[in-house]
Amino acid sequence: MTTHVLISGASGFIAAHTVAALLAAGHTVTGTVRRPDDSQSTAHLRALPGAERLRLVAADLEDPSAFDAHVADVDHVIHMASPFRMDVADARRDLLEPAVAGTHAMLRACARAPRVQRVVLTSSMAAVTDEPDTSHVLTEDDWNVRSSLTRNPYYYSKAEAERAAWRFVEQERPRWDLVAINPFIVVGPSLSGTISESNKLLVDLMNGAYPAVMALTWGFVDVRDVAAAHVRALTAPAANGRYLCVAGNRSMREVVALLRASGYAHTRLPRRGLDSALGNHLARLAAFTQPRGVASYLRTHLGRVPRYDCAKIMRDLDLAFRDVDQSLLETAADLVRHGHVAPAPRAA
Ligand code: NAP
Questions:
Q1: Nearest to 19 by CA among 80, 60, 70, 62
Q2: How far is the CA of 259 from the CAs of 186, 231, 337, in angstroms?
Q3: Count of CB atoms within 10 A of residue 346's CB?
Q4: Which residues, in sequence order, are CB contacts of 72 under 8 Å at separation 6+?
Q5: What is the DSSP track for 116-146?
Q6: How many angstroms separate the alpha carbon of residue 60 from the centre of ligand 1?
Q7: Given this model, what pLDDT does residue 134 score?
Q8: 196 CB less than 6 Å from ligand 1?
Q9: What is the whole-number distance in angstroms between the Cα of residue 265 and the centre of ligand 1?
């Protein structure tokens, strides 16, 4: 069954893949962007196969009526737009307010729209935890209750936006149901060629931003799997509630070893090891010299290994995740292709 789907923040990293998947499945798509007339930031969308079924319209999260007219004739909604930056000048103004106000604006608009059947919200593992506890297996029942405007403020914005969404549904009891997708760190090729905040992790690793290997372990998921999860969640009869969305963990040491062994030894990957108890102590001290967003991330993640159970998304949305190493290598190749990382020198 093909339907008319509205997706907010359509030009973003994950959204562009989601638009591509929606068009490939035959849906008609309305994508909201901040500047639909900006040909540079929307060219990758207009070039997609099936783009004759894509309409781009203007919406800003901070305009309370931004989505009202756009959802009037849609069947399904993906609310994906949200500011995604680890370091901001003013966490309330730059992260929290647009995330929460934008979610309210979208849900209020949907509550008045006659045809909307389901709203899929792009939440995050940031709404699940901001300090993974190695001894606890995270599930959809877990909520991040520790972030604040000064501690991992991006995480706080995602947790507060998702909480606001579930509260809205509980209070307003709209005709449609709400489903949330909670991805961990999303990697993969970029359709626009720009560096997403999450792929920046690999850019930083390969461009020398990390002086040493630290005791960080990340849960990764491929952007194409996250896109597929959103598309399936729109119509899957079993879809309900929240969905952790992560393919697997890799430590910084494992990512560096993979890249070094796979044709990226010429890049500025860290060589020294700080992934020990003493290293963690030094890295925590060094964190005080970092921008505030980076510092609180380091202090809450060093030495911790996230554990999680993704059985629900695999079962309800029939999702099989791509191999993490393959996703990381395709990301690295894409970063080289777009000039963000130096290519390997040619053999003489
Ligand atoms: P992205 O490329 O930065 O996408 C964010 C989108 O939100 C962009 O299209 C951006 O528009 C839009 N946006 C931000 N502020 C806005 C505002 N005030 N008004 C209207 N639109 C606004 O990042 P992404 O990685 O694809 O993230 C997409 C969603 O997934 C976000 O909700 C993010 O929190 C969530 N998520 C991402 C990851 C990850 O690892 N990438 C993991 C979990 C969850 P502009 O292009 O105009 O700035």
A1: 80
A2: 17, 31, 16
A3: 5
A4: 113, 114
A5: --EEEEE--GGGT-SS--TTSEE-TT----S
A6: 12
A7: 87
A8: yes
A9: 31
Q: Give the residue among 82, 68, 77 at the shortest CA–CA distance from 30.
A: 77
User: Catalytic: which of 151, 158, 230, 322?
Assistant: 158
Furthest C-alpha separation in the chain:
68
Ligand 1 pocket, 153 CB below 6 A? no
How many Cβ atoms are within 10 Å of 7's Cβ, its own excluded? Answer: 31
The 10s digit of each residue's pLDDT in 96-153 is 999 999 999 999 999 999 999 999 999 999 999 999 888 999 999 999 999 999 999 9
**What does the alpha-carbon distance between residue 275 and residue 283 come to, in Å, rounded to a whole number?**
9
Q: Is 158 in the pocket of ligand 1 (CB under 6 A)?
A: yes
The token pair that represents 292 in the structure block: 């505030």
What pLDDT digit, counting tens, does each position of 183-220 carry?
A: 999 999 999 999 999 999 999 999 999 889 999 999 99
Nearest Cα neighbor of 239 from 126, 118, 123 is: 118
Q: How far is the CA of 282 from the centre of ligand 1 (A)?
A: 33
- What is the Cα–Cα distance from 105 to 83, expressed in whole angstroms? 15
Ligand 1 atom 4 nearest Cα = 12
Q: Tokens 């970029």: give the residue.
A: 190
Cα–Cα distance between 82 and 84 in angstroms, integer? 6
Q: Is the model's pLDDT at 1 over the cut of 90?
A: no
Active site residue 158: yes
